[in-house]
Amino acid sequence: MRCTLGVDVGTSSSKGVLVDDAGRILATAVLEHEVRRPHPGWVEMDGRIWWDEFVAITHELRAQCPDAEIAAVGVSGMGPCVLLADDDDVPVRPAILYGVDTRSGAQIDRITAELGPEAITAIGGSPLTSQAGGPKIAWIAEEEPDSYARARRLYMPASFLARRLTGAYVLDHQSASQTSPLYDVERGAWHEPWWDRIAPGIERPALRWAGDIAGWVTDAAADATGLQAGTPVIAGTIDAWTEAVSVGAHEVGDLMLMYGTTMFLIATGAHTLRTPSMWTTVGAFEGTRNLAGGLATSGALTAWLRDLTSADYPTLLAEAAASGPGARGLAMLPYFAGERTPIQDPDARGVIAGLTLAHTRGDLYRAALEATALGVRHNVETMRAAGADIRRIVAVGGGTQGQLWLQIVSDATGLTQQVPQTTIGASYGAAFLAATATTAPGTEPRIAEWNPVVATITPNSATSAVYDALFDRYLRLYTGTTDVVHELAGTQREEVFA
């Protein structure tokens, strides 16, 4: 049976899927892993895990479906990450993850001052923030010079897998556009003067689009994985963009909401939009532009509450539903790991306001769900103020399995959400891209046929007044607590580094 393999390396797990020519899922596999947080604001991972888990997942999927003829391989992964490797492609240190890792603040300030904020925005699309890859590279060069001296190549999860599978050293345009300020979003090419200045000694990877074939499985990779030598492998891209592909939310006017460990939003348009508090990138496909944003916590926050209260998710969801809109007078800021967009504040921290002895864990869990929903609203309003034309909202990710969370987001934002049949996420999108890349012209699969919409979540107008008032409090709670919270963040750093 002809099929395609899709593997995605995420923040908390790697997922794999085998999909047939009609988009039916034949087999799935998941391997969980953990990030390392050695200091406040540091989030990193041993990049060698990515290949090890790819190999293990591929063997597991082939064992589940021994008759599968894997015609192509799709890869995807969290990002933008910075994994520097030596001449032998051995990582010189753990990978520094995307915007949840906020260690490069000094480099952001220095590079911005040296290059100028207007020039950075004109070339790279966005101001430098904790999401940008360039300052993370500079941090390694400045803080760990011995490691940097051995570094020769730059990888993200998808490109690292493509390298191990095919020997090709490539990076897709979308991922490259998040290594700001090293990539020119208008020219669609590396900005060589700034690359040589910020990443000296690092070879520039060849640029490809997400669905382009990066290369073909080598004999060595075939021996390790059991894949057939010569099998084509796509370049792949960052998981959020691959998730958008998996649900068909990559057309002009679309907005994708990814419910995962973090919450991610991608609005797609035909023209470049710039705003200081969001991320301007190129799209997964040639000719598209994105305005993107992300919450630093989402599923990570609900998992924290689950672990803290020793209750399972069904129990917490039932209790949160009973709590009702407004969580019986609680307001929460979800900034437990700092915050990315639109406030771009790595020193933000979680705040719970209004607590009394009468409040329950269900109220707290409801307040957490509402906090993430209000964070989505804050991002959407910022995108629209920048000129984003949002016509269709598609939800994807593990959080879509819970009706309550979806309904709260629709109620808090006033947005209707479409939920597709398959919400397994980026691994499915990677398999689709691989199928498209290896299908004869004119017979390419259509994601609307692979993965049709099966549910629509509409806002409940009866709750609009509650959430309008709560959103106002949400905004004022942040501004009203910022000074104290920043002092506490500084104390946290001092205690760790003392």
Automatic annotation (TrEMBL):
Coiled-coil regions listed in the entry: none
Residue stretches making up the Carbohydrate kinase FGGY C-terminal domain: 256-437
Domain of life: Bacteria
Pfam families: FGGY_C, FGGY_N
InterPro entries for the chain: ATPase_NBD (IPR043129), Carb_kinase_FGGY (IPR000577), Carb_kinase_FGGY_CS (IPR018483), FGGY_C (IPR018485), FGGY_Carb_Kinase (IPR050406), FGGY_N (IPR018484)
GO molecular function: kinase activity
The keyword Transferase appears for this protein: yes
SUPFAM superfamilies noted in UniProt: Actin-like ATPase domain
Domain Carbohydrate kinase FGGY N-terminal: 4-241
Keywords: Carbohydrate metabolism, Kinase, Transferase, Xylose metabolism
Similarity annotation: Belongs to the FGGY kinase family.
PANTHER family: SUGAR KINASE, XYLULOSE KINASE
This protein's name: FGGY family carbohydrate kinase
Lineage: Bacteria, Bacillati, Actinomycetota, Actinomycetes, Micrococcales
